[in-house]
Design a protein that fits this description.
Elements (H helix, E strand, L loop, with lengths): L4 E6 L5 E7 L3 E8 L2 H4 L7 H22 L9 E7 L3 H18 L3 E5 H7 L7 E2 L10 H5 L11 E6 L4 E8 L2 E7 L5 H11 L8 H9 L24 H18 L9 H34 L3 E5 L6 H12 L6 E3 L10 H13 L26
Parallel strand pairs: 1-4, 3-6, 4-5, 7-10, 10-11
Antiparallel strand pairs: 1-2, 2-3, 7-8, 8-9
């Protein structure tokens, strides 16, 4: 089978990423420019500053990924770029650079759906790194014929949990996804960020990791919090009410301790709040996901779960969902990308492009737009 290599570019939010992936899943080279230090003082991403940082870093990140792969643009067989959803002014930086490179070097181009890229990371073969680049270039027809093995086959159920999204999807094939449940308000990652800010935690590296680390020193049953949407028998999520309950509990604790704000609570109190929030937030996931699992198991015979997105890097969530899968009457298989591949980076764009190209799907670079909102229930373009 002829192997081919794809350069992936990611600039949907606050990190600039690029990677070169071979079609067998080998990461040949990658680079990531973090913006954590830029946005930490503001407690969240400032779009204008993010765009400026992307423009400053994009060429260096791409060149570094190519250098680490021991490759040049002439050696790359195709280019994949995240085109939505995300911050439009940030998406445009990566998309424009990817379009320019595709047209200059006459390479096949793929406009990558950011959420599909997260999901498809669960299908990448066990991740390998190889510094011996310079694979023989493949023609477009050879690319289409190179499907290769995958870590999991369609159909499967996916739980997508990130800073901007919280969805359960039935995954039927490349570009074929049905939403089983979604959030009615905040995403799980967004709720983590807000709790981190409430407690005065450093959020430069993301609120999720900060709350996760703090919760290790807390009692998850110390603060009484309601599990959201107990009366609704669907598969949707809601975190706005839980976020409010945490704030009110923290404010009551402030009165008891005689301090003016949750940021000034004792470390032990903050840890208990963090642990209790995380416990209830994950219990909400277990209930809604368990219902979705029953549904697709009965209707489609699906017994495979992919857990993807930035929050999938949380060790406690992985442990609890693994137990949810293994404790069923007929156990499910669960696949989760390595933690560093759960967050946004160039490898996910590159691998999504590999998957699209392998089924003969690509886009016209000169016509590609970016989309701040990109409805996920609609199939991607299949223009080759």
């Amino acid at each position: 089978m002829k192997l081919f290599c794809v350069l992936g570019i990611e600039s949907s939010c606050d990190d600039t990423g690029a990677a070169v992936i071979r079609s067998d899943g080998t990461i040949l080279g990658e680079s990531l420019a973090s913006q954590h230090a830029i946005h930490e003082q503001f407690g969240g991403v400032v779009p204008g500053l993010a765009k400026d940082a992307h423009e400053e870093n994009i060429d260096r990140v791409i060149n570094t990924a190519l250098q680490r792969a021991n490759m040049s643009m002439e050696d790359v067989d195709a280019i994949g770029v995240t085109v939505g959803p995300g911050l439009e002014i940030c998406l445009r930086v990566g998309c424009n650079r990817g379009r320019e490179l595709a047209m200059k070097y006459n390479k096949p181009f793929v406009g990558v759906h950011h959420l599909e890229a997260h999901i498809l990371m669960a299908r990448i073969p066990p991740v390998k790194h190889d510094n011996n680049g310079g694979e023989q270039s493949a023609t477009y027809d050879e690319i289409v014929q190179s499907s290769g093995d995958r870590a999991m086959d369609f159909p499967f159920l996916a739980l997508l949990v990130s800073g901007g999204h919280c969805q359960i999807l039935k995954c039927l094939g490349i570009g074929r996804y049905a939403i089983v449940g979604g959030t009615l308000d905040d995403s799980l990652g967004e709720a983590f960020d807000k709790i981190a800010r409430l407690l005065g935690l450093p959020v430069g590296g993301g609120g999720g990791p900060a709350v996760e680390a703090l919760s290790l020193d807390g009692d998850p049953h110390s603060v009484a919090l309601p599990i959201p949407m107990q009366r609704r028998k669907d598969c949707d999520f809601s975190y706005a009410g839980l976020k409010t309950s945490v704030r009110m509990a923290a404010e009551r604790m402030c009165v008891e301790r005689g301090v003016e704000s949750p940021e000034r609570l004792r470390y032990e109190d903050k840890a208990n709040i963090a642990a209790s929030f995380q416990h209830v937030a994950f219990r909400h996931v277990e209930i809604r996901l368990g219902r979705a699992m029953e549904l697709v198991e009965k209707e489609d015979g699906i017994r495979t779960l992919a857990v993807v997105g930035g929050v999938a890097a949380n060790k406690e969530l992985r442990r609890r969902l693994n137990a949810l899968c293994s404790d069923r009457i007929e156990p499910w298989e669960m696949l989760v990308p390595p933690p560093r591949l759960c967050t946004d980076q160039g490898a996910m764009s590159a691998w999504a492009a590999v998957e699209r190209l392998s089924v003969g799907s690509s886009d016209l670079a000169e016509d590609q737009e970016v989309f701040a909102r990109y409805p996920f229930s609609v199939s991607l373009n299949d223009a080759s």
